[in-house]
Design a protein that fits this description.
467 residues, single chain, alpha+beta, 5-stranded antiparallel β-sheet, globular
Length: 467
């Protein structure tokens, strides 16, 4: 039988393992997604279902593709990591079970091991005004939609924990919560009213006018974007912010809930809700976490030999002006400037566009304590790394836009004035790697930094506190 947990699991008998031996692994590390009605394509709560998919389970666990854990082996330890990845002993046990015929034995159904919370504060459940029927607005099988949540705070409060309760778990892939204060709140409420409470389409961010970067905001901590409150994915092992910390939400502010719907299952009306724990700022001694964004230029030329007006950088700039306005189109030049680079650093006609790289160094201007880290690219990106003085804070060697998350460091890292934060990204702009829109690959083009589905970003994100 299975004993212990995590890497302590073993089979005391010399016989082939049975469902009873592997079931605790599936319950702890897989069933958050692989549950009836969940986002995964099949359930792992019953022996019968697991046996039916045993060969696929063996392949995906051997490859390390499941459970999905994006950080590479050179990344530091993160809170909850041990419950998101399989140990070598667990992989071996699963392999023995499959190779031994996926024996069911007397094992019964299991229950997912849920996340627990010890965060301070009062719990509030926030729900969008109206349900929404997802549709693949950006092509393919994905829809990114923003909803307005109103906490009606009369005083500043810290968010200490946040979890999403999806109404349609088969299609809710991940969720990011943003604060919308000031002009952002006004714009969010206007967009929500225009849709009669059903929210609005949003891809790169919350889609608010004040959140679109401008030339003036390129050197700021957040590029004009609102702070992240939290990120949530099915199977998250902890929904609490690091102990003793919180994200400040201001009195009168709204919260924008960006939901990624993956439509491998039939779309249904969804009205997912956020369960958020608030602690009054005036009465709670918590360390406020701030969002710091570290961008790098994006200059992706067309594949060698492709002749098209779309391959002109000047045309790409004009398209950005048309789509997002003149100020947003200043961002590519602004990023070159603040990163100390020029177009000479980005060859316009490289022999290959399968591994285009970019990077940026940002010096720390005040003492920081870094608690959390995340990376962000769009569809063409495949590798992103964030470092502090050469020490890796996060490396995702197989980037997948649809599996993005935020990671809290097991041991927070201090950064002093003059230290260097380095972000680097790699892209593939070949013809086969173009975004899929309405079932068709787009034609290759010169790609710049932009908010849209078919644009790109190279962005490191830190959640840090001033020391």
């Amino acid at each position: 039988m299975a004993s212990g947990s995590g890497g302590d699991r073993h089979v005391t008998s010399g016989k082939a393992p049975t469902w009873a031996d592997v079931a605790p692994i599936f319950a702890e590390k897989c069933a958050g997604c692989h549950t009836p009605g969940g986002i995964a394509p099949f359930s792992l709560l019953s022996a019968k279902s697991a046996k039916a998919h045993a060969n696929g389970i063996l392949v995906m666990t051997k490859l390390g593709r499941m459970p999905p854990w994006m950080p590479g082996h050179d990344s530091p330890d993160y809170i909850g990591e041990s419950r998101r990845i399989l140990t070598p002993a667990e992989k071996q046990l699963i392999a023995r079970w499959v190779q031994g015929g996926a024996r069911v034995g007397t094992g019964g159904p299991v229950k997912p091991v849920g996340a627990t919370s010890s965060a301070p504060g009062t719990t509030m459940t926030l729900t969008p005004a109206q349900p929404y029927l997802p549709k693949a607005a950006v092509g393919g099988l994905d829809d990114y939609h923003c909803f307005l949540l109103e906490p009606h705070l009369t005083q500043n409060a810290y968010v200490t924990s946040a979890v999403i309760e999806p109404q349609q778990a088969t299609i809710v892939h991940h969720v990011i919560l943003f604060e919308a204060a000031g002009e952002n709140a006004t714009e969010a409420r206007r967009l929500n009213e225009a849709s009669r409470g059903k929210g609005w389409t949003c891809f790169g961010g919350p889609g608010l006018s004040e959140t679109h970067p401008t030339g003036d905001s390129a050197s700021g901590d957040r590029l004009g974007a609102p702070p992240w409150i939290s990120a949530w994915v099915p199977g998250h092992t902890t929904n609490d912010l690091p102990q003793g910390t919180g994200v400040l939400v201001h009195a009168g502010a709204a919260i924008v809930m960006q939901v990624h719907y993956n439509l491998i299952h039939k779309p249904k009306l969804d009205r997912s809700r956020a369960v958020i724990r608030f602690a009054p700022a005036a009465a709670t001694k918590l360390t406020p976490l701030n969002t710091i964004l570290i961008p790098a230029p994006v200059e992706l030329p067309c594949p060698h030999g492709v002749r098209s007006t779309l391959c002109s950088r000047d045309v790409a700039v004009q398209q950005e002006i048309k789509k997002y306005g003149y100020n947003a189109a200043l961002i590519p030049a602004g990023l070159l400037y603040i990163c100390g680079k020029s177009l000479a650093n980005y060859p316009q006609s490289p022999a290959s566009v399968k591994s285009l790289s970019t990077s940026c160094d940002r010096r720390v201007t005040r003492p920081l304590r870094i608690y959390g880290v995340a990376g962000h690219m769009h569809i063409r990106g495949y590798d992103i790394k964030i470092e502090l003085n050469g020490k890796t804070l996060l490396h995702i060697p197989r980037w997948n836009f649809h599996w993005q998350d935020a990671y809290y460091l097991e041991k927070p890292v201090d950064a002093d004035v003059g230290d260097v934060i380095h972000v680097s990204c790699k892209f593939d702009n070949s013809a086969i790697k173009q975004p899929l829109v309405n079932g068709k690959l787009l034609k290759p083009r010169y790609v710049l930094w932009g908010e849209g589905t078919t644009d790109e970003m190279c962005l490191g994100l830190l959640q840090a506190a001033d020391r």
